Amino acid sequence: MKLCVENLSISFDKQLILNHIDFQIRQGEFVALLGPSGCGKSTILNILAGLLSKETGIIKVDNQEIKGLSDHFAYMPQSDLLLPWKTILDNVTLYGQINHDSKAKENALKEFKTFGLDGYQNSYPDQLSGGMRQRAAFLRTALCKADILLLDEPFGALDVITRNDMQDWLLDLRKQYNRTTLLVTHDIDEALFLADRILILSHRPASILKEIDLSNVSKSRDWLFEQGTLKKEIFELLKGENNA
Ligand SMILES: Nc1ncnc2c1ncn2[C@@H]1O[C@H](COP(=O)(O)OP(=O)(O)OP(=O)(O)O)[C@@H](O)[C@H]1O
């Protein structure tokens, strides 16, 4: 599904946070949003997910305008929000159960291996490592029948090694699943490694400062290590905005 965001603005307490944001995401494209802290990245996801009301702007999925909550979007917030009293299988099939999908558990179990959770269906969240919990939260999001995934710093709370492992895993998964995705991250490496395109936001009120197209790049850790100049350029841009 193609996502089109036009002229998106919002203020909190009379302070303009998003200033006429325009962007599009093609079917199957993976786009990362990078920007200085507090510029409004999560706010964009919250508006798309229907949790916040925009002041101006139009959101379209495949040319159809979306208002409020929509099942086009599956949202994975920063914390994993796994329910501690439910098993991993019950946690990942929460939406399916709410929607009375009798095949929810059967369909979920087929994905446990891919998501590195094989054998853990009857475990509880506190029996899993941080990385596994994030994969479970991600599986719950991916199992939603939504066309567009909204991921807010999914690996933000993980240590650097687990984070890198999760990025490798997500890059592999991307090739298989081809879901339209918008990822919010603070991490320049993560954005470069995972995204087809990076949108860099300015300091508040946020507008899109720069777009980096990586769609023709064959991604690998070696490629990432060689991107010193590009990383420096993005870093300087974000640093300038942080000080703005
Ligand atoms: N519901 C709300 N009511 C009032 N102010 C809000 C609300 N949501 C966000 N804000 C404010 O809007 C600004 C942008 O917040 P947001 O969380 O979108 O930024 P961010 O770029 O995701 O930040 P970070 O990188 O630190 O996660 C912040 O100043 C925040 O305090």
- Give the CATH H-level superfamily of the largest domain: P-loop containing nucleotide triphosphate hydrolases
CATH C-level of the largest domain: Alpha Beta
What's the helical proportion of residues?
25-40%
Strand order of the largest sheet: 6-7-8-3-9-10
Reported by name, the CATH topology of the largest domain is: Rossmann fold
GO molecular function, one term: ATP binding
Keywords: ATP-binding, Nucleotide-binding, Transport
Protein name: ABC transporter ATP-binding protein
Domain ABC transporter: 3-228
Can you tell me about this structure?
This is ABC transporter ATP-binding protein. InterPro entries: AAA+_ATPase (IPR003593), ABC_transporter-like_ATP-bd (IPR003439), ABC_transporter-like_CS (IPR017871), ABC_transporter_ATP-bind (IPR050166), P-loop_NTPase (IPR027417). It comes from Floccifex porci. Keywords: ATP-binding, Nucleotide-binding, Transport. This protein is an alpha/beta fold. The chain folds into two domains: 144 residues, Rossmann fold (3-Layer(aba) Sandwich), CATH 3.40.50; 70 residues, no CATH class. Helix content is 35%, strand content 24%. The protein is built from nine helices and ten strands. The protein has a six-stranded mixed sheet, with helices on both faces. α6 links the parallel β7 and β8. The protein is globular, with a radius of gyration of 18 Å. The site of adenosine-5'-triphosphate has 11 residues, from α1.
Q: Summary?
A:
Residues 3-228 form the ABC transporter domain. This protein has 244 residues and is α/β, with parallel strands linked by helices.
